[in-house]
Automatic annotation (TrEMBL):
Coiled-coil annotated spans: none
Protein EC: 2.5.1.18
EC class of the enzyme, as a word: transferase
Pfam families: GST_C, GST_N
Designated name of the protein: Probable glutathione S-transferase
InterPro entries, per database record: Glutathione-S-Trfase_C-like (IPR010987), Glutathione-S-Trfase_C_sf (IPR036282), Glutathione_S-Trfase (IPR040079), Glutathione_S-Trfase_N (IPR004045), GST_C (IPR004046), GST_C_Tau (IPR045074), Omega/Tau-like (IPR045073), Thioredoxin-like_sf (IPR036249)
Span of domain GST C-terminal: 88-211
Species in which this protein is naturally found: Nyssa sinensis
Length: 228
């Protein structure tokens, strides 16, 4: 690899990878994309991310950066064009707070709601709605989280606009009801109509098939660990 080259190891259906790709494209950074098979991991992935063995993995000038939130921050500090995080330290701290909140209390919780059944599904579904209410409050009166343009928090929560509706369909649940969440619904439309976003989304029909299979696999795994 040449000295300044950027390489991204990813997976087509991963919301964590996609947020990094959006950031690279918004900033106009050239990169080489390498598709990984997470069910048959390449020696390169195992070498670059021996700790978690997950994508995304960013390699810049021979240095490896892991974890999508940290990759976004690294990109923002390295390529100053199209700033993602707010300039003010307090606003930056708040953006990180909401990013963590959305990841832990909405993404992972709605994923469990998708994969589980019965009481567990119901409990995680309710928790997802509660988290969505908090996010709705944050978006009130705003086009994007950061104001007039797409920023760090929009990229972090971008999955809500496109992955969540697929999870809702596959999991027969409705979290993002437009009547209850008008600001989030408006944000979702603004986000999805941005050219960089709308041209960089995985095919929906393939996602449905992928998540039908994946949610069943994870669901049985969760059920068997509970029994064991
Ligand atoms: N917290 C990580 C999550 C990354 C992640 O879970 N990646 C999944 C793909 S969606 C993966 O590589 N899974 C492989 C595995 O779990 O073995 C991030 O934000 O980068």
């Amino acid at each position: 690899m040449g000295s300044e080259e950027v390489k991204l190891l990813g997976l087509w259906v991963s919301p964590f990878v996609r947020r990094v790709e959006w950031a690279l494209k918004l900033k106009g950074v050239e990169y080489e994309y390498v598709e990984e098979d997470i069910f048959d991991k390449s020696p390169l992935l195992l070498e670059l991310n021996p700790v978690h063995k997950k994508v995304p993995v960013l390699v810049h000038a021979g240095k490896v950066v892991l974890e999508s939130f940290l990759i976004l921050e690294y990109l923002d500090e390295t390529w100053k064009q199209y700033p993602l995080l707010p300039q003010d330290p307090y606003d930056r701290a708040m953006a990180r707070f909401w990013a963590k909140f959305a990841e832990e209390e909405l993404l992972y919780v709605s994923w469990i709601a998708l994969c589980s059944q019965g009481d567990e599904k119901e409990r995680n579904f309710k928790l997802s709605i509660e988290a969505m209410e908090k996010i709705e409050g944050e978006l009130k009166g705003k086009k994007f989280f950061g104001g007039e343009t797409i920023g760090y928090l929009d990229l972090v929560m971008g999955w809500i606009s496109y992955w969540l509706p697929v999870w809702e369909e596959v999991g027969s649940m409705k979290i993002l009801d437009p009547q209850n969440f008008p600001s989030t619904t408006a944000w979702m439309n603004n986000f999805l109509s941005h050219p960089v976003i709308k041209d960089n989304l995985p095919p929906r029909d393939k996602m449905i098939v992928y998540f039908q299979k994946r949610s069943k696999e994870i669901g049985s795994l969760m059920a068997s660990t509970r029994k064991g």
